[in-house]
Amino acid sequence: MAKTILVVDDSASLRQVVGIALKGAGYDVIEGRDGADALTKCTGQKIHLVVCDVNMPNMDGITFVKEFKKLASYRFTPVIMLTTESQESKKEEGKAAGAKAWVVKPFKPEVLLGAVAKLVLP
């Protein structure tokens, strides 16, 4: 059975690029257009990993990760932040919220897929 990955980004084209890479590697993909929208999709189904942007309207990525980690079903779900942010302070904030990896845009699909393969829940 395919593993499910939640992709959260306010850019439709970026969700599409990430989605194509993940689907090509055999994953199922759920999309959220921002943190608030993504939370509405977290209804208890198994999500094996989240790929999340930092800067988004309505609810940014760091806030989303904090809220997502409060949900009992997803407390241990790994999160990869995929963002243009590369400052150490933002990375620390992401890590404190519960993010396991930080991939800076523009990214190479194989780098993202490598991180996904390492972190995805069994």
UniProtKB/TrEMBL annotation:
**Protein name listed in UniProt:** Alkaline phosphatase synthesis transcriptional regulatory protein PhoP
The residues covered by the Response regulatory domain are 4-120
List, alphabetically, the Pfam families matched: Response_reg
- List the GO biological process terms: phosphorelay signal transduction system
Provide the alphabetized UniProt keywords.
Phosphoprotein
Modified sites of kind 4-aspartylphosphate = 53
Q: Which InterPro entries does its entry note?
A: Bact_response_regulator (IPR050595), CheY-like_superfamily (IPR011006), Sig_transdc_resp-reg_receiver (IPR001789)
